[in-house]
Amino acid sequence: MAQVSTVTSQPGDVIRHDVAMRFLFVGDSMTVGKAGDFTWRYRMWQHLEATLGDGGYAITGPRTELYDTEANAPLSHAYGDEAFPASARRHLAGWGEGWLHMAPVIADTVRAARADILLVSLGLIDLGFYTDSTQTAANARAFVTAARTANPRIKLVLLPVIPNIRAESDAPFAAECDRFNTLLAKAVADLDAPSSPVLLASRPAGYDIHTDTYDGTHPGPSGEHRLAAAFADAMHQAWGVGGPYAGALAAA
pLDDT tens across 181-205, in order? Predict the structure, then answer.
């Protein structure tokens, strides 16, 4: 799949740093993580601490748990770093959840969490189990529309789908992933607005499912850094938020 470049029609916009920004992570199993994981949310928290600390941000959301594979439920609090603060563990992510599941709940979540910026990684599970690329893209558009009903000035960064190991042996699935990413880029271009900007982050630089995941889908430590960097760099380049990602793989 060709790399998708960061898209914004508001390249000069800068978000004021004198106002604390409230971030909400939205995603599937790649975002929620399982017991023992650090998660890319943890890597992003470290980045936000380093670049926006001193009350410049908050992480919000209705959930804090990791997925417990033995219980087959989101019951674990065993993060890779026990010092990961409880307040920074908040999210709206779920194992097996996609655009299909998040679009109906995002308005209420944004309203309750008072979120300002959504960092969203969704789509792989939709294409793999629930909806084709056309319907998945329609659900992504519905998600953005619903989020704006709760906060008309909401800002969103969307990550394209990273095809997993299934795409290597399932050509129709790989084609659907590529087609969805094209449709997602079109949706971002259509929905981006000065009052509520939408960014399409680039595919994480150098991301390799054979070395950056532990099973061909879910990120290991190196993949977590690359995912966090994709979001961090998109916000910094387009909005002047924070700084360039300076995590372990920033120069890789």
Answer: 999 999 999 999 999 999 999 999 8
pLDDT, tens only, 90-103: 999 999 999 999 99
Structure-token pair, residue 217: 């889908």
CA 214 vs. chain centroid, Å, equals: 19
Coil, helix or strand for 172? Answer: helix
Q: Name the H helices within 62-161.
A: 99-102, 106-113, 124-125, 133-150
Contact 31, 65 (CB under 8 A): no
Q: What is the DSSP letter of 92?
A: E
Please compute Rg for the chain using Cα positions: 17
- For the entire predicted model, the pTM comes to 0.93
Of 161, 151, 150, nearest in space to 187 by CA? 161
Helices (H) and strands (E) in the chain, counts: 8, 8
